[in-house]
């Protein structure tokens, strides 16, 4: 696959690019990484991720479920219990996302130095 394979297809996004957008979205990344540890109930996931609205987390989970990355297990009990876990496909995607997150953490000092050098060069010109 080349970068041109990820390009726009007319007015609509290519299907693989849309999945990439879902997986790498702000909340998609955090949901996938969190679910790598273990299944979570909605409220647990929301607390673990932090600063995500109920609406946004619901939308993210629905999108990832539709893409086949997240499994929603609604148990017919009172009170209702819903658990979210990764599918095999989701686990594979989450491992890739986690690798990128770990790389970001490991290279943050280099990024900060590059930002500082850039800002200094811009200020000097």
Q: If you had to describe this structure to a student in words, what would you say it looks like?
A:
The protein is elongated, with a radius of gyration of 18 Å. Helices cover 62% and strands 11% of the residues. The chain has helices at residues 15-23, 26-37, 42-49, 54-66, 88-106, 108-124; strands at residues 40-41, 70-75, 81-86. A three-stranded antiparallel beta sheet has the order 1-3-2. The longest helix has 19 residues, at 88-106. With 125 residues, the chain is mainly alpha-helical. It has a single domain (3-124), classed as Arc Repressor Mutant, subunit A (Orthogonal Bundle), CATH 1.10.10. The termini are far apart. The model has no long low-confidence stretch (mean pLDDT 92). The protein has six helices and three strands, in the order H-H-E-H-H-E-E-H-H. Helix 2 (26-37) packs across helix 5.
